[in-house]
Amino acid sequence: NMDKLRIATQVSIGVADMHNVDKEGVPSIAHTDITPGQFILIDGIYKLNDFNRCRFLRWNSEEDQACRFHVGSNPGKNRSPEEYAYEDETEKVDIYSMGNLFYMLLTELWPFEELKDKKAQKKIMAGERPPMESNISDSEDPAVKAILKAIEMCWRQEVEERATAREVNTFLKAEQQKLDPSWLE
């Protein structure tokens, strides 16, 4: 499970660095397609890749926040509630999808794998999350517990309550450091 925590930490680094590429705390890119296939393993490190759906974010200086955006087509079962509702979007769509990726790491299943896309999308918009087997959700393994907490940070229904990529990354790095002090070497 330490390997899964390492992968989750690397994923969170990639998303956090992308969001903050221009200035820390000022999101400038939303990937909008965070799935396992968007990461490439290079020299033992998972790196974010495939930016064909990304949105470069403009800054609203009057509201002191990134401008919201729309993506015209949001298929599948791996996206955020606001994407399926075709509401205004922020970089936080990536956070929700990152939670799905962490779910896949733990369960080895796609979210709502057994459901048709439309049915899964309705559940996601209604605030439901894919099932988690009790051997995972009740695990005492500290690496699993850390990933479960990260999923909780990512899967908030309300965009404003969802963690930033850097918050998830900071949490996972701290948990990894506790369990494996040599991991940064």
TrEMBL record:
Pfam family, one: Pkinase
Residue span, Protein kinase domain: 1-172
Superkingdom to which the source organism belongs: Eukaryota
Protein's UniProt name: Protein kinase domain-containing protein
InterPro entries, A to Z: Kinase-like_dom_sf, Prot_kinase_dom, Ser/Thr_Kinases-Pseudokinases
Molecular function as annotated in GO: ATP binding; protein serine/threonine kinase activity
PROSITE patterns: PROTEIN_KINASE_DOM (PS50011)
